[in-house]
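#struct-queue
[09:14] JT: dropping the first one here, sequence first, then the structure tokens:
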Amino acid sequence: MNPGKKIITLLLTVLLLLSLAPGGAPAALPGENGVQTATADTGGPETTGKSAVIMDALSGKLLYAKEPDQRLPMASVTKLMTLLLAVEAVEQGKVSLTDRVVTSENAWSMGGSQIYLEPGEEMSMEEMLIAVAVGSANDASVAVGEHITGTEEAFVDMMNQRAAELGCKNTNFVNPTGLPAENHYTSAKDMAIILKKCLDYPLFMSISSIYEYDLRGGDFKLWNTNKLLKWYKGVDAGKTGWTNEASYCLASSGERDGMRLIVVVLGTTEPRSHFRESIKLYNYGFARFTAVKLAKEGEAVKTVKVFKGVAEQVDAVTTAPVAVVVPKGEDKDYTGAVAVPDEITAPVTKGQVLGDYLVTRDGKEMLKVPVVASAGVEKASIFQQMYRVMHKLYTFE
């Protein structure tokens, strides 16, 4: 081979080596707008979504991420925050599911997906929330927000405040609907955080999992826009979104074999591609990871003596499932220990934190779950305490 050909061959070899990512895999190529079409550092699947994550719903740990902090419009996925604030207001007793929500001119004027509320039309809070969760109704979203705070603007302020409280650093809401608006954005990671909080509320789970609903006595049929409720085993919650600006978006959650995942895909362009890409990520998550389960939520993990109480003992129960999600094959050598005192002094309130359930591996703390009193124990009167002492002294068995 002549010197010129040798030089050309050498240059081509160097260029080929430079085009390989660490580990010998081809480097991710830029997609539309320079967004990478794969996440080389995780070895996860490629997705056409501009931003996507798989989150462990228990710990909040990201199991897969592609541009997780990229700020993007999210269309009607916005309504997850609308629903979160509503179910929290119900939980706190600020509103009731039986409240009559009156439609304002402002709510009536919303375009896009709607249930065609008329100005002055009343509907129960429960049915309004179902219209938001199942039918993605913009008019109902605004009506709910106005009922809770008085004005749409005040509700939007509450949305942003709650996002900040949850640690969402790349989210800003301008409306409760997701209709196109300047400076209205989120990221896949932030939306997973919001959905994770939604999952804490049985009311959210109940309405989010409804696939079809007869509104107005059956005159208006609602079909859930989240088709994964039917198309993918285990999916039971979430919210879709689509606008020209946001493209197709979906934040959803599903559980299999005791492991719950949250999958968020934002900005995928083809019709139904948000379902396809989410299924791809679910398949990856459930195939590659497993849950190491040590205790169920609400399980009694220790009996604690109560000093000077009307009852002599109380159960210490877990506040959440004690489980860690790990790659399959790495689920050995996890141990649990209950760090709770053997005795406490009355009075004890129900739900009082008594300590923690600690999960360790090779001496490293992997998870800490608070452990609380299963019941309240009042302080015994002086006569009750004296009787108990005398009873023990003079009772022989």
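[09:21] JT: and here's the second one, same format:
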Amino acid sequence: MSHTVHHEPDSHRFVATVDGDEAYVVYEPKGLDRWVMSHTYTPTALRGRGIAGEVVRTALETARSDGRSVVPVCWYVEGFIQRHPEFQDLVADSDS
């Protein structure tokens, strides 16, 4: 299983393609400095391999390197951030 995670800025998502299946996280830009992380999807065939975590980690690392904060609306992204406190500094209030 070889794959990379890539950013599709026009579609507002980060994607990993494995054996023709896509796992992804979708975000909604809010202003120039915030992403609302709204949805994570992993096809049944890819679940349990840590691929969703890789996709979310890449999205969060990109947000950090771009100087953005995130609003984790998606339950998976929220849980990932709770399990990886090194990303908690990226979390912004949905109202700010």
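[09:30] RK: nice, looked through the second one.
[09:31] RK: The radius of gyration is 13 Å.
[09:31] JT: good to know. Strands lie at 5-8, 13-18, 21-30, 34-41, 69-72.
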